[in-house]
Amino acid sequence: MSKKTIAIIGATGTIGSVFSKNLAKSNYRLLLFDHQAKKLNLLAREIRKLKPSKDIEFMSCASEASWEADIIIPDIPAADEKELAQKIGPFTNRKIVLSFPGRHHANNLGALLPGARIVSVSSATDELRTSGTEVFLDGDDQAIETVGKIMAAAGFVPVPVRNFKNNHINKSNIEEMETTRWTLDPTHSEIHFKIRHLMVSWVTGNFKKFDASVETEGDDLTTAKIRFAADINSISTNNDQRDAHLRTGDFFDAQNHPQLVFESDKLEKIDAETFKLYGTLTMRGQSKKIALNVEYGGMTIDPWGNTRTGFSVTGKLNRKDFGVNFSMVSETGGILLGEEVAINANVEFVKQAALQTQAA
After folding, report:
1. Structure confidence by residue, pLDDT tens digits, 263-314
2. I want to staple 310 with a disulfide (CB 3.0 to 4.6 A). Which of 179, 211, 329, 348 is the partner?
3. Helix, strand, or coil here: 163?
4. 73 near 45, Cβ under 8 Å?
């Protein structure tokens, strides 16, 4: 019997890289796909050091695949399920697809791939970051048996769903684990704004105190619920007199409205690294719908074992929409301050586990 071929889509991702490196030591034939050619080349070099003679192929574009693989492991966001289904649809009568991070993702893939045998994979921490992690498999018996061997070859401990009663976790726990909480790392985050001064230059500022939280279903960013709050009294433009003026009723009115708050409605995926964030911004007691541009920085494991993700957020708003109507004309007839405010934030979040105090 010939050895099985495993295709890993998004091989440089958090899950994909774990499987790519661990399965390189196994007896399986690997096909590794990723649209990020530079990262794929780095991964290729790492794997070839581990196993120079390994039967493995690296491909920079998944659409070029022949899809002869027996098992497909997609490290993709839920929003890409339809695209994946279109690629592998014609071959699903003989495919097993591993679905992360659990049943919700598996159900979506199952609806798109009626002929495929979908195996849902979850872990006690809703992530797969180190060998030895106990993983829970849900699917038909034969597919679970096959996937169990693959998971074991990758260094994990497979547990079929039907054995949950004899384990420390049950089905209801698996459903609950699908909600992932992310906390802000303030030491690696910042928020800035700028506004025109006399229409010839810019005044820039930032908030020194702010907080944000994110909740997602698994690691699916398109399900994110985001809340951000900034302390108005912490505003800084590198000028004490100007900062004091900004806190007054002419601008933010910090005494009556001490916080600026943003709450998300939807995070819309544009492509692998670009999103559109829609939500409500409340300032000076005025709430308005706004849209922001989001650049996704990726996900990684830090030296202390925490899972981290980062984003850059940009956007523009009109201060008068929020009741900030202060205006003054210069001696030459020019407007002292512009109406449009540009926002730029760089934020880093830590997944669930307590934030380590070390700073890189």
Report:
1. 999 999 888 789 999 999 999 999 999 999 999 988 887 777 778 889 999 9
2. 348
3. helix
4. no
Distance CA 132, CA 154 (A): 9
Handedness of CA 13, 14, 16, 21 (dihedral sign): positive
What CATH number does the domain containing 12 carry? 3.40.50.720
Q: What is the DSSP string of 220-272?
A: EEEEEEEEEEEEGGGEE-S-HHHHHHHTSTTTT-TTT--EEEEEEEEEEEEET
Residue 254 has, within 13 A of its CA and on its CB side, a CA count of: 13
41 and 69 fall within a common domain = yes
Check whether residue 155 and residue 237 sit in a common domain: no
Interatomic CA distance for residues 71 and 43, integer angstroms: 20
Residues 141 and 279 in one domain: no
- Beta 235-236 vs 201-207: how paired, if at all? antiparallel
What is the value of pTM for the model shown? 0.52
Distance separating alpha carbons of residues 170 and 207, to the nearest angstrom? 44
Q: What is the pLDDT, as a whole number, of residue 295?
A: 94
For the chain, the domain total comes to 2
Same domain, 125 and 197: no
